[in-house]
Amino acid sequence: MRISSIQIFNIANNSMSEANEAIAKTQAQLSSGQRVLTPSDDPVASVKILEIEQNLARLEQYGKNIDIANNNLSLEETALDSVSTLLQRVREITVQAGNNATYTSSDYETLAVEVDARLDELKNLLNTRNAGGDYIFAGYTGGDKPFDGTASSGFVYNGTDGQVNIKVSDSTSVATSDSGKSIFVDIPAAQNSFNTSVNPANTSSPAAMISVGRITDQDVYDEFYPEDMIISFGHDAQTNPSGTNLTIRERSTGNVIQPFQNAPYNLGETLEVNGLSFEITGKPDTGTTLSPATLNFGAVGVVDFSLPLNTTTVDITVGAVTETFVMNQSVTNAVDLANLLNDVGNGNAGRLANLGVSANATGLVMPAGVNFSLAGGNANTDLAFGIATSVGVTSTDGAIAEGDQFFVDSSPNQDVLTTLARFSQAMRDIDGSQESKDRLSEIVADTLDNLNNAQTSILETTASLGARVNTLDSTQQQHTNTDLVSREIMSELRDLDYAEAASRLSAQTLVLEAAQATFVRISQLTLFSRL
Q1: What pLDDT digit, counting tens, does each position of 446-463 carry?
Q2: Which of 190, 325, 330, 402 is geometrically suited to a Cys-Cys bond with 449, CB 3.0 to 4.6 A?
Q3: Choice among 338-347, 370-379, 486-495 with the minimum mean pLDDT
Q4: Inter-helix orientation angle 434-494/43-97, to 10°
Q5: What is the Cα–Cα distance from 195 to 214, expressed in whole angstroms?
Q6: pTM above 0.70, yes or no
Q7: Where are the domains of the chain?
Q8: Which H or E element spans position 23?
């Protein structure tokens, strides 16, 4: 077999190149301290190293999340501690105010001034922000200011019920905020309480306000509880002489709470209704002139309802209230029908008054503009009314003329801001009379109970914070241990054995030198050198 000179050169060149590559690779390993420089060096180890690197990156991010969570929880704990200290001071003032045998109106005014200052301080604490600018008691909408309002306008919680959760491990998330509603709003009241609020659809500008209010007669309010009230302002033309007027209704039934049917009202004056007291300030929008709801009789037929076989009933419904009218007289024309519906003896007149509906020879009218329905009849009532009472028919043209609305909602809870505001107002209401002092004594007792409930809520939240911090600490320790083990495994997979690499480099260098020396000698072997 013949071997040409070019083959000899190529073989020698390839051998020396491979030796050089081996040396270069070993030198790179020695300089980096890593055994696996490319996936081809050890495919199995490369895959495991990549998995470990990804796990370490997750652990690093979890560590940052834990730091953020710890900072937020620490800030919340500090804020709650400040709130607890503040409430303790208010408790001392409350106990002090209970000594009404020696205190004068001026003394109570001084105490009220301090409570007002504490109230402002408390609202600022409840609107505490973290380093990121988020409100810590706003639930999961940290960008919205949670607590707003004043004693004269009522307090509003604008946050949410949820919490901000942050992931601190593959299987663990920790809440880093709390809902101010659960801590400071949903606090069980000592007795049945209420909240005031403004209808968001009101159109007055600047917006009219309703005060936080107070309970002036607990027994009277307890009889009304748990009903809610809607206060609506009507057009000035609805009173004679014309002027600002309001109507107060029960929310569930729509029934007017007498005597507040288009009752004249001087803005800012105190409203006393069902044992409650509050004020409305500003200039509410009074709406437009209302359109009464009407239901005209048709062709009135002759029916003698006094006959045993013909006596029947018919229902009239306004909102959620239904009254059953007794048909027990002879009807020959529309006047007879109107007289029957207005009869006092069979109770029909009282039923009309309860619904706020009137009846005349033309038909039925709801002056307040609320549409109503007539149903529950039979063929005889269909004939008498001239309309399909057996099927049911509804009035037309009803249009409520009300303007701005305000809500008074019953509640078993009382937020901590309202507790302080009502306590301050009760002290300002002291006029030297025994009645005002007796009322203050009741408020003092209720305030102490409400403060106890508020501090219980704060303590429960503080305990929850401690549990969450413990979770963060144990998770952080677990991450530290996992990080240490992972790095040890990765070191075994990737790190270089320097002694082995140095020996290998020496051997590779010897091989290269031998290849080079051999090539020099072989390159000199030619036919001409043998002649």
Answers
A1: 999 999 999 999 999 999
A2: 190
A3: 486-495
A4: 170
A5: 9
A6: no
A7: 65-286+405-454, 293-394
A8: helix 5-32
